[in-house]
Design brief:
The chain has about 220 residues and is α/β, with parallel strands linked by helices. Helix content is about 35%, strand content about 25%.
Length: about 220
Amino acid sequence: MQLVATDICHEFSNVRVLDQVSLIVRRGEAVAVVGPSGSGKTTLLSILGGLLSPISGEVAVGFDSGRSDHHVVQHVAWIHQTTNGLMSRPAVDNVALGCLATGATHRRARERALELLDTVDLGGFGDFGTAKLSGGQLQRVAIARALALQAPFILADEPTGQLDAETSGLVVDLLVDQAAHTFGQAVVVATHDALVATRCDRVIRLGGAVSEGGN
């Protein structure tokens, strides 16, 4: 399964921010999207996730069978910089919500949520409300929920933008080593952080001509 963007163009107030951007993201890999402020990183993620329609071009999920699905939003889990997608409830409830979305029973959802909190090094924090958790801990809860959703594609918008270097490293470890390389999800990270980009399998550079490189 892969996420395919073809000739994506977008503009705001007649200013072109994305011009003929094409890329393919496959399950099991982590891809960094980098570029200066205003180069269209968040815009590209929003288009890839089906939250924003480009003025031209298309995005589709391609299956191994050759079938394509243009309703990409149902295949995507989001991780935001501010973790504003989390409920003001205990961490385990936030993660269990992702499990419930896959059809799990309430009992199994809680069990799986606790397992995933262990995976992101938050064992023992399941009953902590989000107001009692640090920024780095909240990001790890968001990652655990993305893993719980079992979505083939994870889109992370500046997930380390408000974190210190040590916590950023842990978050990137989880996204690359766990989500992409262990769970087999495709991870696309928009970032200003060169260290985050170097940990990913590939780098897409926006701003001027779009270029792609590997690590």
